[in-house]
Every structure is written in structure tokens, then in C-alpha cells.
């Protein structure tokens, strides 16, 4: 009995050690970029691990060199817009594919899957030409349009819809709800963890998007945060303190979004979900 | 009498049709968008893959499959295929296994500080690409921290040029990928675990099932649909891997770590632009991804 | 929740067209990169132009070099989304004009290029037509840390007008005495190899545009010296640009040899002030036409078709003004390729970082002695193939002749498309 308790204790300790180690490794780069926002170039490249006194100066330089507010505004607008629209469009499609599935819809789904298999670089030029003709260059719509309907999100919601109980569906129909009402009033609330996870991921992808935005956002007014940070590193003189201040500001929103939404996709609200 | 019998039957049929129609209406916007924004440019890329010449004056190549034939003789392309498959085979299984393990550990309600651990493990994928690649480069560079630490503790006697060695540079990319994407996949597993009744675990524990048994007998079978989604996505993502190759190693040293997408990008944007050849290579990736996805679906998707 | 969603949507929609393209006539839009260098220079040009044309509208947009290149290729011949003026890397100029002749305005006879360095003008001249207005020089300088040299018992004079054999001797000695490598550089980008190659007037291509790798004796000599340096730890190969800059800021290396724009990096490191000395590079011991001078990098302005070309040309006359170059030099360290600029006051002044030496005048002298280089549309294909060959030679013990033959095949293969 005592031996069992000891083994259990060792196992528990090992588990915590494993998690602590994983956590430390995971946060290290973000910690480092945060700390480095307080340091100057020489300290950063020298591997200094503790904050120094250059934070204010770095932030001042950053705001002098770059229009941080414009970049933040554009990044927030495009990321929120993309998250909301993508979740709406893709979740209802995923629901449609699963709940009403038949041979025809299943084949459509398989065809849609093909869309994620072509590397984005291959469609970049034809896509850019379409957007030029449609006058969508430098617009938020142009930014989000290619990523609001993604096979990944559709597939994710389709697979999640499998756990939507048929009984609930039938009961709702008997209660006289129409199909759209069932989706909005029954499915959406029940799938809150699914939506929260998808929102976190979509927001993050939109926030960190780089290849497409740098092609389609061509004016000083349409710059996004990752583009701004990349601009800081493109020159003959790289002030790493400024870069790290930019990186930290750029990373904060995704971290905050995760903090806010993670409650929804973990069991903090398990009672409400079940 | 006949009317009374046949009319509900007719109505049931039309109700089924109505539901099916509703289904079509639900999936129509998404489908339409994908057709316009993905399939149309894909189709135009497919046509381009049979053409050659200056980007604004493309003409049909002779023979039509000329670009595809060239690929087999293109050493850099073959190198990029080998590199990409290496990343795929090593990284995806490790990453997904780690993600499942983290998710099931963090799903344990008796675990202290779960919120903190969860946030920490997710943070890598919230870290911007620029920060992440810069940090990895700074850590692994010749006069960087990893070398300094290893030298100080006498583990190595001379600094290793990590990013400039074909094997080490690949390892750095794989480490970077696992570091960045494990938490991302964990998020999906954690959300899916919310639909597993927690009492199942409690019952299993009372029956004496240990953690590993709970993982293999309860968690993994119930998570199968989501594991399938993430497996397909990770395979797809790795075969189209671009960011890490571009930002961590620039494909170097000497194309030793370049991925297929990165090579396609170079073919279009850094070398003399060759749209036809780039498009042809893209379709080879499409076929590879499609085949792997089909295999995974066959294995994992038992409805 | 639903209300919140629709509210967010509505807000987002109203903002959507804020940034929409609205290009009025009479406005000049310019794309360029680097706020401490090209952008700064352009801002000074803008301010000078505005003094005489107070109504002019000039917008300078910060875009990275690779982003500009991507945007030009993505627009694929349609100039409607492009600006009036953009900056082009000299090494890419031929590639872009060859592929997109409809995009770049032919400036032949429209802009007076007589006072610009002929080697520089050659980068943007295609089939006898001029497409570029030269900007900064890429004249190669060798800059040394005097303190480290002293530690090993050398002065910068010992490294002036020497050949690579002598450099190797000194390099070994310095490495032994100080533990430091002499040089560092990006491995795959093969900057160092290209610099050494151009110093004897050799290129990766022949005059007729054919590839010149496997039978290029000068290239083989260069590779052999380069390999020796890397093998003996005199040259540290790194993978990326910021790692390279890191080896200078971290004081890992004794010297750096690259385009004179690196002064801009050096002069951003205050704690190394006064510790540097500048001289010419070693020359190849055997190659025909070997010199101590070379070129790396630099860029030129292009004017885009389908815009108000006359207006753009009028604005660009600033780049033929000595005062302009004197104004930008202290701000940016961008060295002119406009020859009369050397008489400006800024060029004869000494530099704090280089112990008061008048380095800018020296660099202009070097520039005049630099052999020219053949680039062409496939320049980067050749460079990439050469980078792979050199990596194989150095890291995997590949044979020089075999690897160069393979590289030549690769480039020919690409050109055969």
C-alpha cells in the first residue's frame, strides 16, 4: 500500500515535471522577446535574459519609425472580420454537410477538400489578378476573402457536428423550429467549445497572416502588424530592441484572445454545455 | 381513403426533400466561395502548368507535359521533395502524439495549475512568425546561445554551425515545427474532449484503469474524428510547408532544407519567373496531398 | 451575442473601403525600403522638390525589396496597382525588364545619365536602352577592427593592396593569436564568392549570355581560396542576413568585406566607434585582370509605364544635384554613383567611426576602379546553383569540377525552358 502510494507520488511528480518543462520551453521565446523589448541590440544579441532600461526608448523609436496605430487598427479589423465571417460561413456549411449528408453532398465535400491541397503560392498570381479587377486591392475585404471559407474549418465543423444528438434535432423539428432556427438556437449554443477553439485558431491565423497581406495591402494605410515587424528587419541597420518591442506588441493580442477564449473550450463551462 | 393514406407519405417525402434543400442552402455560400476563390485560380494554374515562356507571353509548351517531364530531372525539386517528406515522417507523428498527451493530461480536473500549463503550451502558436524564426535563429546561430551554453559546460569543444549543416539544420526545422504547432493541435483535442462525459474517466479510474489505458481505450477512440482532421491538416500543412523553410533557414545551406512550396515560391519570385513550371510543381504537391489524405480517410474515417 | 456579431460586422464593413486605392493625378507614389537608408534619402529628395513645387504630392510607401518584387510579379504586366517610381536591386534589374518590358519606362534620351558611373548604369541598361536612374553604390570595402589587428601585431596597411595568399597568412596568424575569424558571410547567398569573382572582371555569364561556370578558371581559383578560408575557420559561414549582421555587432569577427552600404550598419554601433579602418580588398593571386576592387549590391530607381512619366522624371532630376547627395550622406551613408557628388563638402569630411579618415572620398575612388559584371535575367538562378555547388564542395567534400558542371547544367536547364 505504501509502495503504491510512493509510485503514485513519483508518477505525479514526473507528470508535473514534464508539464513544467514543456511550459518553460514553450514560453521561452515569447518571454525572451518580451524581456528583449527592455534591452538594446548588443544586449539582445549577447543573449541577455533579464530586462534592462531601454523599454521606453525602444517604444519611442518604434512609434517614431512606424505607424503602429494604423497597423494595429488594420490587424484588429481584418482579424475580427475574418474570424466572424469565417466561423459563420464555414460552420453552417459543416453542419449542412454532416446533418443532411447524402451521396451528393459527400462528393461535394470531397471536391472541396481538393481546395486546400494546392499550395497558396500557386494561386497567388491568378487570385491577385482577380482581386485587382474587382478593385479589392488595399481593402479589408480583399484581405479576408480568400480565407473565410476554408475546407479545414468546414471539415472541422462537419466532424464536430457528428456529436450533435439526433434526438435533439428531431425534438426541435417536432417543436416546429425550422432548419435554420435549429442551427442557430440548438447547434450553435451547444457547440460553444467548438466555436471557441475555431475562433481562437482563426483569429490567430488572420493575425499572423503574412504572404497574402503583403501582396494585397500596398499602401502605408493598409499595413498590418506582421508587415510592420518585417519592415523593422529589412534594413541595413536592425535595432533589435525596436524589433522586439514590435514583436511583443504584435504577440499580445493573440495571447489575450487565447486567455479569453480558452475558458470556453475547456471544461470551465462544462456544466453549461452538457 | 386513398387520399388520406397517400398524402402523409407524399408530405414526408417532400419534408425530406425540404431538409435536403436546407442542407444545400447551408453549404452553398461556402462552396461557392471555394469554387470562385480556389478552384477558378487552380484551374487557371492547371492551364499554366502546360505553358512556358515569359510570364506575360505564355505559350503552350511542346510537348504539353514538358514542365512535368523537367521535374524528374530537376535536382533541386527532387531535393525539396525528399526534405519535405523527411519533415512529414518525423514531425507529424511526434507532434500529434505530444498534443494528445498534453490534452489528456490537461483534461484531468485534479491537475493543479491546468490553466497556466494550457496557456503556456499554446503560446508558441500565438508567437508571431517573425519573432519565432528570429529567436530560433538567434539561439542556434554560430555565436548564439545554444553554442555558448554547450561550450561552457564542455559538452562540445568547438561551436557547431547548426543552421549551416544539412542534418542539424533539418533538425532545427523539425524542432521549430513541433514547438510551434503542438499547442495548436492540443486546442482541438481539448475542445473535443468537452463532448466526452467526464464521468467515463471517473468510472474507468474506479475500475483501476491507469492513465495510459484511459488514453488508449477512451480518449483516442472518442477523439478519432478530430485526430483525423488534425492528421490530414498537419500532413497537408507539412507538404505545403513554407514559412519555416523561408524564415528559419532560407532553405539553406545550399537548398539542403528547402521545401516544395519554398522552391515553387523561388521559381516564381526570386529566380527568373517561370510560372508554368511553378504551376506544374504545385499540381504534383496536390496529387501527393490528395493521395495521403485519401489513405488517412480510409484508415481513420469509419462512419 | 448575435447583436455583437452583427455590430462588429457593420463596423468592419464601414472601415473596409477606407484604404481603397484613390490615385489622383499629379501625385507621385514611390515604393522603397529601409527607413534609415533609401526611404530617408527619398524623404530628403521630396523635401527639396517641395521647396520648388509646394503643390506637389509625393507619397513614399515603405515596402520591403522582396515585397516590391512580389507585387510586380503578381500584377503580371498590369501597372495599375504599381506606383510611379520604385526601387530595384541592381542585380535584379535585367531580370525584371526582360520579363516585364511593358512595366518599366524606357528612359533613353529622357534622363541625362552622362555623369553617372558607367559600370552602375550598365546594370539597368538592356539592349542599349536605359531603364534605371542609378542610386547608391555597392562598391566593396574591406573594413577591419584595428584593435583586433593590433592584438595580433598588424595594422591596416599590412592588409592594403595585398593578394588573397597574404590574406590567408595573416588570417591564420590572427586566428591563432586572437581566436577570432577574419570574415563572416551568408553561405547560400555566396556574396563573398561573387565579390571575389567580380574583382577580376569575371562573371557567371559570358558576353553572349551563355553560362560561364564549369570552364571559369577565375571562379575555380575563388572557390579554392574560399574553401580554404572556411575549412580553416578564417571565414564563418552563417545562414541569414541577421546572423551576418550579428557577427559584426557581437564583435565575433575581425573584418567584413561587402558593399559600402555596410557602413550604415557599422555606424549604428556606437560602442565600436573609432575602432574601424577601411581599405581595399585582397586581389586574386593568379586570375587575369585581378584588381583590389569589386561591387556588391546597390540599387537603382525605375519609373513605371502608364503613369505620369514626365512628372516622375521632373522629380527625379533631384538625383542629378550635388547638394542632394551632400545632404543624404551624413544621414544615410548612401554613397552616390553620380560622379560630380564627390566635390560636395560631405564627401571630403572625415568619419568618427574610422578614426577621422575621409572614407567616403576613398570609396568613390575605389568605385571608379571596379570592373563591371554581367548580370542578365538568369543571374539569381546561376547564383542559387553556385550556392548549392559550393555548399556541396565545402560541407560534403564534393569535387569542384563535377559540382560546377552540375551547376552549369542546372542553369542551362532552367534557361532551356
Automatic annotation (TrEMBL), chain B:
Name of a matching Pfam family: BPD_transp_1
PROSITE patterns documented for this protein: ABC_TM1
Subcellular location: Cell membrane
A GO CC term assigned to this protein in UniProt: plasma membrane
GO biological process: transmembrane transport
Keywords: Cell membrane, Membrane, Transmembrane, Transmembrane helix, Transport
InterPro entries linked to this entry: ABC_transporter_permease, MetI-like, MetI-like_sf
Family: Belongs to the binding-protein-dependent transport system permease family.
Name of the featured protein: Sugar ABC transporter permease
Organism (species): Candidatus Avichristensenella intestinipullorum
UniProtKB/TrEMBL annotation, chain C:
Signal peptide: 1-22
Name recorded for this polypeptide: Carbohydrate ABC transporter substrate-binding protein
Gene3D superfamilies tied to this protein: Periplasmic binding protein-like II
Phylogenetic placement of the source organism: Bacteria, Bacillati, Bacillota, Clostridia, Candidatus Avichristensenella
Organism encoding this protein: Candidatus Avichristensenella intestinipullorum
Record keywords: Signal
Keyword Lipoprotein: no
Amino acid at each position: 500500500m505504501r509502495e503504491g502510494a510512493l509510485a503514485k507520488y513519483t508518477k505525479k511528480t514526473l507528470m508535473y515535471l514534464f508539464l513544467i518543462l514543456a511550459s518553460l520551453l514553450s514560453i521561452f521565446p515569447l518571454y525572451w522577446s518580451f524581456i528583449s523589448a527592455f534591452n538594446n541590440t548588443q544586449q539582445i544579441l549577447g543573449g541577455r535574459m533579464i530586462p534592462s532600461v531601454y523599454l521606453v526608448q525602444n517604444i519611442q523609436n518604434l512609434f517614431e519609425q512606424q505607424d503602429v496605430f494604423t497597423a494595429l487598427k488594420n490587424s484588429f479589423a481584418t482579424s475580427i472580420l475574418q474570424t466572424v465571417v469565417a466561423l459563420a460561413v464555414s460552420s453552417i456549411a459543416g453542419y449542412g454537410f454532416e446533418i443532411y449528408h447524402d451521396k451528393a453532398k459527400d462528393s461535394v465535400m470531397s471536391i472541396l477538400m481538393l481546395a486546400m491541397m494546392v499550395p497558396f503560392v500557386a494561386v497567388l498570381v491568378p487570385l491577385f489578378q482577380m482581386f485587382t479587377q474587382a478593385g479589392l486591392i488595399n481593402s479589408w475585404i480583399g484581405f479576408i476573402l480568400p480565407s473565410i471559407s476554408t475546407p479545414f474549418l468546414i471539415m472541422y465543423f462537419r466532424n464536430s457536428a457528428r456529436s450533435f444528438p439526433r434526438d435533439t434535432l428531431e425534438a426541435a423539428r417536432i417543436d416546429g423550429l425550422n432548419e435554420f432556427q435549429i442551427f442557430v438556437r440548438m447547434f450553435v449554443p451547444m457547440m460553444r467549445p467548438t466555436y471557441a477553439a475555431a475562433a481562437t485558431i482563426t483569429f490567430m491565423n488572420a493575425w499572423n497572416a503574412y504572404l497574402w497581406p503583403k501582396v494585397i495591402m500596398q499602401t502605408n494605410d493598409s499595413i498590418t502588424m506582421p508587415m510592420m515587424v518585417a519592415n523593422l528587419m529589412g534594413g541595413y541597420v536592425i535595432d533589435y530592441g525596436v524589433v522586439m518591442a514590435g514583436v511583443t506588441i504584435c504577440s499580445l493580442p493573440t495571447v489575450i484572445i487565447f486567455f479569453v477564449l480558452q475558458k470556453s473550450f475547456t471544461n470551465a463551462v462544462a456544466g453549461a454545455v452538457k | 381513403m386513398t387520399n388520406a393514406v397517400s398524402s402523409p407519405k407524399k408530405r414526408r417525402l417532400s419534408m425530406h426533400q425540404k431538409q435536403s434543400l436546407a442542407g444545400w442552402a447551408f453549404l452553398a455560400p461556402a462552396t461557392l466561395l471555394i469554387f470562385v476563390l480556389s478552384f477558378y485560380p487552380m484551374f487557371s494554374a492547371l492551364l499554366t502548368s502546360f505553358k512556358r515562356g515569359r510570364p506575360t507571353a505564355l505559350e503552350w509548351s511542346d510537348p504539353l507535359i514538358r514542365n512535368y517531364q523537367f521535374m524528374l530531372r530537376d535536382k533541386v525539386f527532387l531535393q525539396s521533395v525528399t526534405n519535405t517528406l523527411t519533415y512529414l515522417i518525423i514531425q507529424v507523428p511526434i507532434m500529434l502524439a505530444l498534443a494528445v498527451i498534453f490534452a489528456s493530461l490537461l483534461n484531468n480536473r485534479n491537475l493543479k495549475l491546468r490553466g497556466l500549463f494550457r496557456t503556456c503550451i499554446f503560446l508558441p502558436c500565438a508567437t508571431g512568425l517573425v519573432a519565432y524564426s528570429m529567436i530560433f535563429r538567434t539561439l542556434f546561430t554560430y555565436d548564439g546561445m545554444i553554442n555558448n551554453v554547450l561550450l561552457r559546460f564542455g559538452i562540445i569543444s568547438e561551436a557547431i554551425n547548426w543552421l549551416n549543416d544539412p542534418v542539424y539544420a533539418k533538425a532545427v526545422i523539425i524542432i521549430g515545427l513541433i514547438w510551434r504547432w503542438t499547442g495548436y493541435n492540443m486546442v482541438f483535442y481539448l475542445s473535443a474532449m468537452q463532448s466526452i462525459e467526464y464521468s467515463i474517466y471517473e468510472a474507468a479510474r474506479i475500475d483501476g484503469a491507469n492513465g495510459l489505458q484511459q488514453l488508449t481505450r477512451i480518449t483516442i477512440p472518442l477523439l478519432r474524428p478530430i485526430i483525423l482532421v488534425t492528421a490530414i491538416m498537419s500532413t497537408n500543412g507539412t507538404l505545403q510547408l513554407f514559412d519555416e523553410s523561408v524564415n528559419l533557414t532560407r532553405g539553406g545551406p545550399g537548398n539542403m532544407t528547402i521545401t516544395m512550396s519554398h522552391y515553387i515560391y523561388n521559381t516564381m519570385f526570386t529566380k527568373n519567373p517561370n510560372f508554368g513550371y511553378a504551376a506544374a510543381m504545385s499540381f504534383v504537391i496536390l496529387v501527393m496531398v490528395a493521395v495521403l489524405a485519401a489513405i488517412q480517410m480510409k484508415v481513420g474515417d469509419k462512419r | 451575442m448575435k447583436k455583437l456579431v452583427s455590430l462588429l460586422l457593420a463596423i468592419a464593413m464601414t472601415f473596409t473601403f477606407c484604404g481603397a486605392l484613390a490615385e489622383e493625378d499629379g501625385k507621385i507614389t514611390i515604393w522603397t525600403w529601409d527607413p534609415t537608408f533609401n526611404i530617408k534619402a527619398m524623404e530628403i529628395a521630396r523635401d527639396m522638390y517641395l521647396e520648388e513645387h509646394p503643390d506637389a504630392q509625393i507619397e513614399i510607401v515603405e515596402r520591403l525589396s522582396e515585397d516590391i518584387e512580389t507585387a510586380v510579379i503578381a500584377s503580371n504586366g498590369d501597372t495599375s496597382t504599381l506606383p510611379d517610381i520604385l526601387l530595384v536591386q541592381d542585380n535584379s534589374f535585367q531580370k525584371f525588364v526582360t520579363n516585364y518590358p511593358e512595366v518599366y519606362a524606357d528612359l533613353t534620351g529622357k534622363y541625362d545619365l552622362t555623369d553617372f558611373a558607367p559600370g552602375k548604369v550598365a546594370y539597368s541598361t538592356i539592349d542599349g536602352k536605359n531603364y534605371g536612374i542609378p542610386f547608391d553604390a555597392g562598391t566593396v570595402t574591406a573594413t577591419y577592427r584595428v584593435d583586433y589587428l593590433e592584438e595580433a601585431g598588424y595594422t591596416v596597411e599590412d592588409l592594403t593592396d595585398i593578394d588573397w595568399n597574404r590574406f590567408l597568412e595573416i588570417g591564420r596568424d590572427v586566428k591563432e593569436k586572437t581566436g577570432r575569424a577574419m570574415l563572416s558571410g551568408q553561405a547560400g547567398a555566396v556574396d563573398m564568392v561573387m565579390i571575389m569573382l567580380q574583382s577580376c572582371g569575371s562573371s557567371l555569364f559570358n558576353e553572349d549570355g551563355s553560362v560561364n561556370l564549369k570552364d571559369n578558371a577565375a571562379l575555380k581559383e575563388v572557390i579554392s581560396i574560399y574553401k580554404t578560408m572556411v575549412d580553416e575557420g578564417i571565414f564563418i559561414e552563417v545562414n541569414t542576413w541577421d546572423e551576418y549582421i550579428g557577427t559584426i555587432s557581437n564583435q565575433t569577427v575581425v573584418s567584413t568585406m561587402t558593399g559600402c552600404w555596410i557602413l550604415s550598419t557599422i555606424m549604428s554601433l556606437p560602442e565600436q566607434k573609432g575602432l574601424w579602418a577601411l581599405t581595399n580588398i585582397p586581389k586574386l593571386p593568379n586570375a587575369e585582370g585581378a584588381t583590389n576592387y569589386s561591387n556588391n549590391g546597390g540599387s537603382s530607381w525605375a519609373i513605371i509605364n502608364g503613369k505620369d512619366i514626365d512628372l516622375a522624371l521632373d522629380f527625379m532630376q533631384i538625383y542629378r544635384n550635388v547638394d542632394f547627395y551632400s545632404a543624404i550622406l551624413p544621414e544615410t551613408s548612401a554613397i552616390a554613383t553620380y560622379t560630380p557628388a564627390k566635390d560636395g563638402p560631405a564627401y571630403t569630411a572625415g568619419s568618427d567611426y574610422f578614426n577621422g579618415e575621409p572614407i567616403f572620398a576613398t570609396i568613390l575612388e575605389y568605385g571608379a576602379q571596379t570592373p563591371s559584371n554581367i548580370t542578365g535575367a538568369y543571374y539569381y538562378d546561376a547564383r542559387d546553383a553556385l550556392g548549392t555547388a559550393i555548399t556541396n564542395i565545402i560541407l560534403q567534400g564534393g569535387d569542384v569540377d563535377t559540382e560546377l558542371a552540375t551547376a552549369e547544367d542546372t542553369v542551362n536547364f532552367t534557361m532551356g525552358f
